[in-house]
Specification:
The protein contains eight helices and four strands; from the N terminus they run ααααααβαββαβ. With 238 residues, it is α+β, with helices and mostly antiparallel strands. The chain has two domains: 6-140, no CATH class; 149-232, ACT domain (Alpha-Beta Plaits), CATH 3.30.70. It has a four-stranded antiparallel beta sheet with strand order 2-3-1-4, with helices on one face. α2 packs antiparallel against α5 (99-116) and α2 packs parallel to α6 (120-140).
Amino acid sequence: MTDFDFSTILDFQDLSGTFSVTDVLLSLLLSFVLTSIVGVVYQKTHRHISYSQSFVQTLVLVGMVIAVIMLVVGSNIARAFALVGALSVIRFRNAVKETRDVGFLFLAMAIGMTCGTRFYVLAIAATAVICVVLLLMYRFDWFRANVQRQVIKVQVPADGTADSGESYAELVEKILAAHCTSFELISAESVRGGALTEFSYTAQMRSSTKPHELVAALREINYGQKASVLTGHDQTDV
């Protein structure tokens, strides 16, 4: 009876001919460290209220999984096609809340690919440069638009005519003209079973006008019905 050689358990050369346990551990460890750095940068530079801890954890997971996939595929075309067929059955239904998040996903994938193909220096250099660029864009607020726009919603009686004889739409637009430098009607819909009509405008308020002042002016003509001003830097959804 021959002695069992435990070294075969610690060496994948017989299975793939391309990588060893050291390659696997180094690829996984480096992808984990680099994607964790990317996750910290994402956390520090995130500006809006849609921050998701699970998304950051997914960045780390994606990087490590892609590294494993690249190790398995290697230069074997048959494995690559088999992998494409296996992954084609996966469907992702969660919408990405910010376009910036897509860039972080691609960055995590790129880190996984470079680590899995053992381009370690490239992975480290690319992560360092891209993270520095992200921090600089956050620190100096690059490409920020100075134009601040609002979405204004006001509900008026559905009969369409005020006591003065003017239509409610005309009265609303007069108030907007007095308080805004520009405005545009984007929707008009019936609410509360047809009792009210809700107008939605996108507008740029004058610097001297406060949102509560515009709301008060609108409520004077709509008999106390709903009037709201949603403020955002061209990022407000209707």
